[in-house]
Structure formats: C-alpha cells, structure tokens
Amino acid sequence: MPTGVRIDASEEQLAAVQFNADGLVTAIAQDFHSREVLMLAWMNAESLRMTFHEGRMVYWSRSRKELWRKGDTSGDRQFVREAYYDCDGDALLFLVEQEGNGACHTGARSCFFRAFGPDAG
C-alpha cells in the first residue's frame, strides 16, 4: 500500500498561495509515474495544510461545502509525492500516487477522458 510524503512547506511558501474570493485555489493532481493529469479540484487553506501534514490529498468540495479526503468513500486514494505552486501562486500541482480504480467519480482513471474536435471519440 502506498504512503504519502509529508511536505514541510514554509510559512513564506504558504503565504504565496493566492486564494480566490471564496478562499479557494485550484489543485491539479497528476500521476507521479506516468505524468497523466488525473483531476482538477479545489483546496482551501485548511485542506492544503492537511494535505501537507498527512501526505494524502484533501480537497474542498464546493458542492458539499466540506473537506473531502480523496478516497474515503471510493477507496481511490491519492498519496502525495511532490507539490508545486505556479508563478502567480494561484494554482497548485500535486504529483500523486493513485490507488484504486482511478481519480474520476465516473470510475475513469482520469477526469480528462473527453476530447474536443471532429475526430474525438
């Protein structure tokens, strides 16, 4: 069973994260091994700190208005390997080890399985 890496982010690094008016920042989960983009979700300051402390992805559910530890109900957990923030501090990227069937609530491995264009399946 995978285990996550605890991230010891400094207060300066945490202060660089730019949360939107709702107190949220986008978080992208990418597979550590394949580099496949798995999903995009939202984090608030508490879920970000929990993720860093636990080494496991914790998001903020906008629809349920509550913390959401990925995989608690589905078993499809995500374990942190590395974490990055972009140049503006308004987007986060997590390299994760995905456990279970996949990241998408549909059961797909990635949420990005639909393509645009005439040749898209």
What does this structure look like?
The relative contact order is 0.23. This protein is globular. 12% of the residues lie in helices and 31% in strands. The chain is mainly beta and 121 residues long. The longest helix is centred in the middle third of the chain and has 10 residues, at 45-54. It has a domain at 21-91: Phosphoribosyl-AMP cyclohydrolase (Ubiquitin-like (UB roll), Roll), CATH 3.10.20.810. It has a 4-stranded mixed beta sheet, with helices on one face.
Short description:
The protein has 121 residues and is mostly beta strands. Helices cover 12% and strands 31% of the residues. It is globular, with a radius of gyration of 14 Å.
Throw out a few tags for this protein.
mainly beta; two-stranded antiparallel sheet; globular; Ubiquitin-like (UB roll); 121 residues; 2 helices; four-stranded mixed β-sheet
